[in-house]
Amino acid sequence: MMQQYDDTALAGLAKEVGQAIRSRQIMLATAESCTGGWVAKLITDIPGSSHWFDRGFVTYTNQSKQEMLGVPAELLATHGAVSEQTVQAMALGALRNSAARLTLSISGIAGPGGGSAEKPVGLVWFGWAMRRDGAEEPRSWTAHHIFDGDRDAVRRQAVATSLRGVLEAL
Are residues 94 and 29 in contact, defined by beta-carbon separation less than 8 angstroms? Predict the structure, then answer.
């Protein structure tokens, strides 16, 4: 069953993320594809978010993923933009190219077209990466979901899932 997220619910989730990040005195950055900057928009709607939000990358094309986040062309050619490998590279690239300690990334097929048997409409991959005190390498993890609904519903669910992932990380 599809979870419904209206604008009020998404804004509330973004505020909750902001409180959690600010209380830890860290910064967040986003790397978004299918959501087109929706997460960054929700965050920057919050007064004072500049204290905890560093930047957002909207990398809708493969070329932008390569240029802005350093996602290797070979990785995109082998696995595609909607893949575990790509969102992990996006999250790590956002970490490398920002002052953030925590990043999230989103890439998916929101529809109505563009899906296949292997990668159906509604498939969204998520990545998160976090710099850890005293660790040489950041921690990164991924998840994916296949959401029901139209383009707007898929994107809303993707925004909410990415923000909930941040809360779980903290």
Answer: yes
The two structure tokens encoding residue 50? 């500049």
Residue with tokens 């995109």: 76
**Tokens standing for residue 122:** 């509604």
- Whether the Cβ atoms of residue 128 and residue 103 lie closer than 8 Å to each other: yes
And the tokens for 21? 């990040």
Is the pTM higher than 0.85? yes
pLDDT tens digits, 104-139: 999 999 999 999 999 999 999 999 999 988 888 999
Q: What is the DSSP letter of 4?
A: P
Question: Domain boundaries in the chain?
Answer: 7-169
Structure tokens given for 116: 């296949």
Best CA proximity match to 90, nearest among 110, 63, 119, 66: 66
d(CA 147, CA 3): 9
Architecture of the CATH domain 7-169 = Alpha-Beta Complex (3.90)
Token pair of 121 as six digits = 């409409």
